[in-house]
From TrEMBL:
GO terms for molecular function: double-stranded DNA 3'-5' DNA exonuclease activity; metal ion binding. Belongs to the DNA repair enzymes AP/ExoA family. The record marks 226 as: Important for catalytic activity. Coiled coil: none annotated. This is Exodeoxyribonuclease III. Probably binds two magnesium or manganese ions per subunit. It comes from the Bacteria. The record marks 155 as: Transition state stabilizer.
Amino acid sequence: MLTVTSVNVNGLRAAVRKGFLPWLAATAADVVCLQEVRAEPDQLPAAAAAPEGWYAVHAPAAAKGRAGVSLLTRQEPERVRIGFGSAEFDTCGRYVEADLPGLTVASLYLPSGEAGTERQEEKYRFLKEFEAYLTDLRAGCAAAGREVLVCGDWNIAHREADLKNWKANRASAGFLPQERAWLSHLYDGVGYVDVVRALHPDTAGPYTWWSYRGRAFDNDAGWRIDLAVATPGLAARAESAVVERAATHAERWSDHAPVTVRFTR
């Protein structure tokens, strides 16, 4: 099996204080994709910056305390890449990928946006550039006989089933028609597969993020925005996909939950 887990840690230093390291020690994952690390490697505890038994690649943002993505792999990568060739976004700590045998795997932290503001326009610029990159990546990997898996916080709920209160969020960033149409084109036009949705086609959620405000977690009023997006050949080998939802609010070490997918090799 190949097991890949992705989680937005909502600040890795804070997650370490709340229980991230015991979770990492217990995971059976071969690859762990982290988002919103919000720290330079030298600001992290050694056990988080260079965990024993893992090869770690960090892509912090130039803006201190913002964004940041990391990849942890049991096997040493053949190649790593930070960013996707974007003059605007490659120093923003939003994308890192690694080549493993037969597989290019990436950790993504897509901008959240804010409806009606420049932040939303920035998100749309990111989507345009990133789609072009994913299109070329799929073609290049197909020619080389490789699969692609991009895991992370995509900050878009694709369908009504992907967030609990969809009616109240029709004008909210993350559920805007243009964002949802972009994901539809990525799947139906470019040819990627939402692995979790393919395995759970008729499920509400499973949600991966719950606001810390109110009782969103207790009421399971969440969003499914943490995705594992793969090329069709790899997606067809997915055997299971689970959200590692904490048993109680007090046991959470992030406002997101890890998403774990198991593939046959």
